[in-house]
Amino acid sequence: MTQKEALTEYLLRLADSDMILGQRLCELCGKAPALEEEMALMNVALDLVGQARNWYEYAAELIDDGRDADKLAFRRDAHDYRNLLLTEQPNEDYAVTMGRQFFYDAWHYFTLKSLVNASNERVAAIAAKALKEVTYHLRRSSEWVKRLGDGTEESHRRMQDAVDILWRFTGELITPDETDRLMAEAGIGPDPEQLKEDWRGMVKEVLQEATLTPQPDDAWMYLGGKRGEHTEHLGFILAEMQFLQRAYPDATTW
Amino acid sequence: MYAQLVETGAKRVKSLDEMSPEERAFQEKIDAEVKIEPKNWMPEGYRKTLVRQISQHAHSEVVGMLPEGNWVTRAPTLKRKLQLMAKIQDEAGHGLYLYSAMETLGADRDEEIEKLHQGKAKYSSIFNYPTLNWADMGAVGWLVDGAAIVNQVVLQRTSYGPYSRAMIRICKEESFHQRQGYQILLDMMREGTEEQKQMVQDAINRLWWPALMMFGPHDDESPNSQQSMAWKIKRKSNDELRQMFIDQTVPQLEYLGCTAPDPDLKWNEERGHYDFGEINWQEFYDVLKGNGPCNRERINTRKKAIEEGAWVREAAVAYAKKQKQRAEAA
Fold first, then answer.
1. How many structural domains is chain A composed of?
2. Under a CB-based contact definition with an 8 Å cutoff, are residues A237 and A77 in contact?
């Protein structure tokens, strides 16, 4: 794998993860538990899809085969998608929605914090803008995890269930593969060991405060999103998200 | 906008002579275009009418997110998706802002929402129509937000201060939504395929009449209008507003290269306005009574969201209480 190939692959992971999680949040439109949450969810989703667009645009330039950001988002099938499995998990209840968000935000935050110092200026610039947004996302989702974990008996049970349900998808966030290592070596991506330590530290701290129990670090983990092997959910997400582009392939303008 | 048939509780408008000294001072203030503020004295009818109108407006913003939520997961490009998401976010914001304006009148947001869920409070009839193809996202922006703006621009001068200020802020964002909506249609008509052009015409065919219904019944069928006008809660009549909307919209329709589903629509040189056909009032009243294509779905979705979210809100309250106790203990 050349460095350019690794960078392209890495950009697609960032873009696809943002895009798919943004899509999941869009599904909640009109269904949030309060109007304030309605606004906050759409706000976070808007940030994520906006960031996805920035990463896609850069990826499209590197791929340079005539496809633009829209083609990358709306015309690739599941096996070409590189999002983290965590992001494609269904909304279920608000505990799962917030748990998923928190695990992702913690990873996203530390990743971007490293990317702002990337040797690649374009990456650093996109990350800098994104980091401001994600700092807020993380603050919000960690607050919700604490509220639900340490709220009522019911919310505690639901939040603990959410942690247990989602845990097996979190290993992927901190299990580096060749692309991650190449990016770290190139001075672009975060040091995998550091990322693992930071993520675990943050998660432990918040879960503890939320009176929740994490699963053991050596629990079995479901990997595969980064190499295009997804859960069954992704196919349905794409079928919905890509409907117009697939149904009207001749349309060049929308 | 988004308020139709708001009850005032008044059978006819009192003359100044018939009013109590307080009512008279109030009416004179209104006549002098002085804004009424939350702490000022106001007749109970005025307060109730405003609560009804502002809550209807707020409910409409929130229910209005649903037909758009129907397409936000299927928007065709990143740009259009982001635009639609931003629009939906604005609407949630408008809802919050309007509920706050309403609460300055002593009403409670949760109680008013409960009335909506019980079918006792209204929201704009337009949101009971389904959004069936992508062009609906353009047509909703152009026609529905367009109709809303015509009403709201006038409401910027409404007599109740907090409502007036809410309208000023909301109008700015709505104008932006309307332009974006029109652009969606224009791009498809100019550069789209035959199928896309058909989508646009289909969306207009379905939404044209419901958009005209947004202005409410004819003036002579609108018994509450007179009192609302006297209180300057309303500033122009339903028919006047509807005509304004038609006059500004038809040239835009022609520019698109589309047609309206109304054979009677034509320019009247003498009147200096467009003539147009009669609205299907039976349909209007049916939808208002709950018998529109999506009335049940819209309310059920909102009810479900609030009911299923109860444990979340309870948790937030319980947590805040614990935090407070901890802070006090420390």
1. 1
2. no
Residue pLDDT, tens place only, B54-92:
999 999 999 999 999 999 999 999 999 999 999 999 999
Mean pLDDT calculated for residue range A22-36: 97
SS3 B267: strand
Contact between B114 and B182 (Cβ < 8 Å):
no
3-class state of residue B35 by DSSP: coil
pLDDT at residue B10 in the model: 77
The β-bridge relationship of strands B266-268 and B273-275 is antiparallel
Q: How far apart are CA A151 and CA A155, in angstroms?
A: 6
Task: Please report which confidence band the pLDDT of residue B9 belongs to, taking 50, 70 and 90 as the band edges.
Answer: confident
Interatomic CA distance for residues A115 and A189, integer angstroms: 6
- Amino acid symbol at B77: T
Chain A neighbours among B 230-249 (CB < 8 Å)? Answer: none
The model's confidence at residue B1, banded by pLDDT at 50, 70 and 90, is very low
Contact yes or no for A46 and B89 at CB 8 A: yes
- A59, A11 Cβ separation under 8 angstroms: yes
Cβ-Cβ pairs closer than 8 A, A with B, add up to 143
Contact (Cβ atoms closer than 8 angstroms) between residue A69 and residue A56: yes
Residue of B nearest to A244 (CA): B76
Q: CB contact, 8 Å: B304 with chain A?
A: yes
Q: Which domain holds residue A152?
A: 3-251
Structure tokens at B289: 């009574």
- The beta-carbon neighbor of A29 closest among B72, B86, B191 is B72
Q: Is B3 helix (H, G, I), strand (E, B) or coil?
A: coil
Helix spans in chain A (H)? 3-26, 35-63, 69-74, 85-88, 94-115, 121-149, 153-166, 178-185, 192-209, 233-241, 243-247
Query: What is the CATH classification number for the domain harbouring A117?
Result: 1.20.1260.10
CA B252 to chain centroid, in Å, comes to 21
Q: Report pLDDT for B106.
A: 96
Measured distance CA(A210)–CA(A204) in Å, rounded: 10
Provide the pLDDT for residue B105.
97
Asked if A251 and B196 count as a contact pair (C-beta separation under 8 A), the reply is yes
- Give the integer Cα–Cα distance in Å for B168 and B155: 8
Query: CB distance A32–B62 less than 8 Å?
Result: no
**Is B302 an interface residue toward A (CB < 8 Å)?**
yes
User: Which residue does chain B place closest to A52, by CA atoms?
Assistant: B78
User: CA-to-CA distance for B180 and B145, rounded, in angstroms?
Assistant: 10
B:61-80 residues touching chain A, CB 8 A cutoff: 62, 65-66, 68-69, 72-78, 80
